[in-house]
């Protein structure tokens, strides 16, 4: 089976593999040859795969995994970092991905707060001018 890992900027992996391990919200799972068609949303995690007796790793920042009718696996992700040392990927890359994800969540929360404040002000102005039939 063929594995493709792509980001918006690059094709990170394109190779024939024997097996793959990944993680979605329900937990870790494996894929072997002749797997049924499959679609899942991946979490921030490390994907591993085997080619002969060698194991390879790639840290991903979430994404979508599909297995098509021919058994080929495609992973589309926002960011991916390859590595042959699991300890380095786990300690460095996943920590950085988690920090960036937390910063994005905080920015999103602040954006929603600003939007709600604008809506509140619009409603208060509509309420004051409701007798006039106009928006000020």
UniProtKB/TrEMBL annotation:
What Gene3D superfamilies does UniProt report for this protein, alphabetically?
F0F1 ATP synthase delta/epsilon subunit, N-terminal
**One Pfam family here:** ATP-synt_DE_N
- SUPFAM superfamilies tied to this protein: Epsilon subunit of F1F0-ATP synthase N-terminal domain
> Where located?
Cell membrane; Endomembrane system
Which residue intervals define the domain ATP synthase F1 complex delta/epsilon subunit N-terminal in the entry?
Answer: 1-79
What keywords are assigned to this protein? ATP synthesis, Cell membrane, CF(1), Hydrogen ion transport, Ion transport, Membrane, Transport
What is this entry's stated membrane topology?
Peripheral membrane protein
Q: How does it assemble?
A: F-type ATPases have 2 components, CF(1) - the catalytic core - and CF(0) - the membrane proton channel. CF(1) has five subunits: alpha(3), beta(3), gamma(1), delta(1), epsilon(1). CF(0) has three main subunits: a, b and c.
Q: Which family does it belong to?
A: Belongs to the ATPase epsilon chain family.
Q: What does this protein do?
A: Produces ATP from ADP in the presence of a proton gradient across the membrane.
Q: Which protein are we looking at?
A: ATP synthase epsilon chain
User: Which organism's genome codes for this protein?
Assistant: Halomonas alkaliantarctica
